[in-house]
Specification:
Number of strands: 40
Distance between the termini: 45 Å
Strand order of the largest sheet: 33-34-36-35-37-38-39-40
CATH architecture of one domain: 3-Layer(aba) Sandwich
Strand content: 25-35%
Largest sheet: 8 strands, mixed
Oligomer: single chain
Structural class: alpha+beta
Mean pLDDT: 91
Low-confidence stretches: 1-32, 618-623
Length: 724
C-alpha cells in the first residue's frame, strides 16, 4: 500500500476548513473604506509569459543558453557569468508553430546549434499548424553568438526525423561538426555551413543516438533493426563500421568513457512473437561494456526478476544513463522508487546515489563529471528541487534549492563556477535561475515585469484516499479569493499519464499552459482540484504501475470519482455544478467521467482524449497474441465508448487533425456515437495542429473556448444542441 512520505497532514475536512478560512480572512480584515474592484484578469494576461526550455552550457567558460517561447515566438537567449545578464540572440518574430529543440553550444561557447520545426508524423510530414501553402521542413541551424555576424542563423541541413528523434544533435569535441539522426541515417555537417549536410555512411536499419568519441575520430550509434539491434562505430579515417558484440538482442544508448577506450550501452532481449499481452511481464535488461577498439563486450549489470527491476526501454530516459569518470550511472526502480545508481566499469554491486522515499527526475553531470546534479521531490513530495551527490557514492546528497518553489533542468557552466536551473512557483511562471548560496536569482526578470503574479492564487496541497484504499492521492486545490459560498468546481486531470502536477507552474510547456488555464478558471470563480491519479510519477513504482490500469481495466478512473466526491464534500462547492477537464490521458478520463458518472460530473472539456483503447493500445497487435480476443474485450470495457449509453452531461471536444499521439479518428468516432445517443456536445477542430499545440494562438482559442463552455453550460445552465 502506498503511503505519503509527508507525515502529520490534516484530514481533508480540516483542510477544507483551513482553505475556507484562508479565503475569508481578507474579507474580515477589510475596513469600512471600500477599495475599487480590480478589472477581471484576462486569459491573455495569464498566458503572457516567457516559457524557457533547452537550458544548456558550453563545455568551457561561463556561458549558458536557453530557448524562450514568448506567446508562440521562439528564440535563443544567452547569458555569461558571473553576472549572467540575459540577452536575445535570434530574432524570429512569428507565432508560426516552429519549435526550437536540441539547443547545443560549441565547446568554446561561440556558436549555438539547434533544430527548428516539428518532428514528422507517420507519413513523414513535418507539422504545418499555420496551414502554409508550401511544404514545411525541419532544419538544423547554427548562429554565432558574438561578433559581426552574431544573431544571423545559417542553415546546416534538413532533419525530417521521426517522433522524439530530433532532440539529439551532437557536436564534435572540437565544435567543428554537428551530427544528427534523420530519415534512418546519421547526418554530418560543418558548423560553419561551408558544406551541405551529408549522410555519415550508408547503414541498414533505423539509426540514431550518434555519440562522438572524445578524440572526434569516430561516432558510435544505435542501429535498430526491428526485432534486434546493434551498436555500431563509424571510423572517419578508415571509413569503416564495426559492431560491438552483435547478437539477436536489442542494443541502444551508446556512451563513451571519458578516455575513449570503452563504450557502455543497454541491452534488451530480442522480440519474441506470440506472447500474451494482458499479464505483466518483467522486461529484463542489462548494461554492457565494450572495448572500443576490439568490439569485445561483456555485461556489468543484469536486472533482476521482480517487477521493480523492470525499466522498459520506452521509458529509459537517455539523459539518466551516463559514463562518468570511472563510473557508469543508470536509473532503476529496484528499491521501489526511481533512483540513480552508480557502478565501476568492472561491475560489482551498484551504489545507490539517491536513497530515500522519493523519485528522481532530471539529471546532469557537473563540468568535471565528478558530481551528479538532479531534481527530485525529496522532503517536498509535491514540488521538485535541485540536489547534488558525488558520482562515486559514499556521501549523502546535498540540497541546492529548497522552499516553496520548484526547480528542474540543472546545468553547470564549463568553468565549474556556476550552477543554473529552470524554476517557478505557485504564482510565478518558469524562468532561468542562477543557484547561489543565498538562494536563487532570476535571469531576464524584466520579462515578468507586467505579469499579474500578485493576482494569482497559491494552490493548497490536499490528500485523500482512493476508493479501494490502496493509495493516498495528492492534489492541488485552487480556491478563488474570498470564496465563502457554494459555487461551481472543476476536476483537472493531466495527460501522459507519466506526469505529476505540482504546487506551481509546471516544467513542461503543455502543463505550464494548463496550470495557467486553471488559474484563469479560478479567476472566473471556479474551485479547481488538480488530481495526481495512479499511473502518474513521483510516488513510487507501485503508484506508477498499478494493477488493472489503462486499457487493462482503467482502475485509475476510481481516483477521479474520489476527486469529484472530495469536491462535493466542500461547503464552498455546489455538488450539482462539478465539471472536469483534461487533455490526452486527461481527455480519456474526462470522457470516462461523463460516460460513467454524469450523476457526479455535470459537464466536461475533453481535449484530444482516447475513447477506444482497442485502436490505441492494440491495433493490429491484438491479432497475434494468444489472448487477442480477451485483450480486445478488456480494452473495450476500459474505454469511454463502451459507456456512451449512460452519457448524459454535455461535453466540448477539442483536437488538432494532425495529432501524432492520439488518432484524430478517436474524436471522429466518438462524435457519431454521441449523436446517436443524443448527447449534447460541441466541437473545436484545429486543421493541421498536432497533439501538443504548436501555436500559442491555438492554446488561446482552446482555453478561451473551455472557459466559455463552462460558463455557459456549468455555471449558467444553458442547454446546447445535440448535433453540433
Amino acid at each position: 500500500m502506498h503511503r505519503s512520505p509527508r507525515l502529520g497532514l490534516r484530514p481533508a475536512s480540516r483542510w477544507a476548513l483551513a482553505v475556507i478560512l484562508a479565503g475569508a480572512l481578507p474579507l474580515a480584515a477589510r475596513k469600512t473604506r471600500r477599495q475599487p474592484a480590480p478589472a477581471p484578469l484576462t486569459l491573455r494576461q495569464i498566458m503572457s509569459f516567457a516559457f524557457p526550455s533547452e537550458l544548456t552550457a558550453a563545455a568551457h567558460g561561463e556561458r549558458a543558453a536557453w530557448v524562450f517561447d514568448i506567446e508562440g515566438v521562439r528564440n535563443v537567449w544567452v547569458a555569461d557569468g558571473p553576472d549572467f545578464q540575459a540577452r536575445q540572440v535570434t530574432h524570429y518574430s512569428e507565432d508560426d508553430g516552429r519549435e526550437i529543440d536540441s539547443l547545443r553550444l560549441t565547446p568554446d561557447g561561440k556558436t549555438a546549434v539547434y533544430s527548428r520545426g516539428s518532428e514528422t508524423n507517420r507519413q513523414g510530414q513535418v507539422a504545418d499548424p499555420n496551414s502554409e501553402v508550401w511544404k514545411p521542413t525541419q532544419e538544423v541551424w547554427a548562429v554565432r553568438l558574438d561578433g559581426p555576424s552574431a544573431g544571423q542563423p545559417r542553415p546546416l541541413g534538413t532533419m525530417e526525423c521521426g517522433e522524439e528523434d530530433c532532440e539529439d544533435i551532437e557536436l564534435s569535441p572540437d565544435g567543428r561538426y554537428a551530427a544528427w539522426a534523420a530519415r534512418g541515417q546519421i547526418w554530418i555537417a560543418p558548423v560553419s555551413g561551408a558544406e551541405p549536410a551529408r549522410p555519415m555512411a550508408y547503414v541498414r536499419g533505423d539509426n540514431d543516438s550518434p555519440r562522438w568519441s572524445p578524440d572526434g575520430r569516430e561516432i558510435a550509434f544505435a542501429s535498430h533493426r526491428g526485432d534486434h539491434g546493434f551498436i555500431g562505430i563509424y571510423d572517419f579515417g578508415a571509413q569503416t563500421i564495426r559492431y560491438l558484440s552483435p547478437s539477436v538482442d536489442r542494443d541502444s544508448l551508446p556512451r563513451w568513457s571519458p578516455d575513449g577506450r570503452q563504450i557502455a550501452y543497454v541491452r534488451e532481449p530480442g522480440i519474441e512473437r506470440g506472447l500474451p499481452i494482458i499479464p505483466w511481464r518483467t522486461e529484463h535488461w542489462s548494461i554492457w561494456i565494450a572495448d572500443a577498439a576490439t568490439g569485445e563486450a561483456h555485461p556489468i549489470f543484469v536486472s533482476g526478476d521482480r517487477p521493480e527491476d523492470t525499466y522498459p526501454s520506452w521509458q529509459f530516459m537517455p539523459g539518466d544513463f551516463m559514463f562518468a569518470p570511472g563510473r557508469v550511472l543508470f536509473p532503476s526502480w529496484r528499491d521501489g522508487h526511481l533512483h540513480i545508481y552508480s557502478l565501476p566499469p568492472t561491475g560489482g554491486e551498484p551504489a545507490l546515489l539517491t536513497p530515500g522515499d522519493f523519485d528522481v527526475k532530471d539529471t546532469a553531470l557537473s563540468s568535471d563529471g565528478q558530481t551528479l546534479l538532479y531534481s527530485s521531490n525529496q522532503n517536498d513530495i509535491d514540488r521538485r528541487h535541485i540536489w547534488s551527490v558525488p558520482v562515486a557514492g559514499g556521501s549523502r546528497p546535498t540540497p541546492l534549492t529548497q522552499g516553496d518553489t520548484i526547480e528542474w533542468t540543472p546545468v553547470q557552466t564549463g568553468d565549474g563556477q556556476s550552477t543554473l536551473c529552470l524554476g517557478s512557483s505557485g504564482t510565478v511562471p518558469a524562468m532561468p535561475y542562477l543557484i547561489a548560496a543565498g538562494g536563487r536569482r532570476m535571469l531576464a526578470s524584466r520579462l515578468l515585469a507586467d505579469y499579474p503574479s500578485d493576482r494569482l492564487v497559491t494552490p493548497k496541497q490536499v490528500i485523500f484516499a482512493s476508493p479501494d484504499g490502496l493509495y493516498q492521492l495528492h492534489g492541488q486545490l485552487f480556491v478563488p479569493r474570498g470564496r465563502t459560498r457554494p459555487g461551481p468546481a472543476l476536476v483537472y486531470m493531466h495527460g501522459g499519464s507519466m506526469r505529476q502536477m505540482m504546487l506551481g507552474f509546471h516544467p513542461m510547456d503543455y502543463y505550464h499552459y494548463a496550470y495557467a488555464e486553471n488559474q484563469y478558471l479560478v479567476s472566473r470563480g471556479y474551485v479547481v482540484l488538480s488530481v495526481n491519479y495512479r499511473t502518474g510519477i513521483m510516488y513510487g513504482f507501485h503508484f506508477r504501475y498499478p494493477d488493472h490500469a489503462g486499457w487493462k481495466g482503467a482502475s485509475e478512473y476510481q481516483d477521479i470519482v474520489a476527486a469529484g466526491k472530495y469536491l462535493q464534500s466542500l461547503p464552498i462547492v455546489d455538488p450539482h455544478k462539478i465539471g472536469l477537464w483534461g487533455g490526452s490521458y486527461g481527455g480519456f478520463l474526462t470522457a470516462m467521467g461523463l460516460a460513467k458518472n454524469s450523476d457526479i460530473f455535470a459537464a466536461g472539456v475533453d481535449m484530444h482524449g482516447v475513447h477506444d483503447w482497442r485502436t490505441e493500445r492494440g491495433g493490429a497487435g491484438f491479432a497475434a497474441p494468444p489472448d487477442a480476443a480477451a485483450a480486445a474485450k478488456l480494452a473495450w470495457e476500459s474505454s469511454p465508448d463502451a459507456y456512451v449509453s449512460t452519457w448524459r452531461s454535455p461535453v466540448l471536444l477539442i483536437q488538432g487533425d494532425d495529432d501524432r499521439n492520439v488518432q484524430f479518428s478517436q474524436m471522429v468516432d466518438l462524435v457519431q456515437r454521441l449523436r446517436a445517443q443524443h448527447v449534447p456536445f460541441e466541437q473545436l477542430v484545429f486543421p493541421d495542429e498536432i497533439h501538443g499545440f504548436l501555436m500559442w494562438r491555438t492554446w488561446m482559442r482552446a482555453y478561451a473556448a473551455t472557459a466559455d463552455f463552462f460558463d455557459r453550460v456549468l455555471e449558467q445552465g444553458q442547454t446546447i444542441a445535440t448535433t453540433h
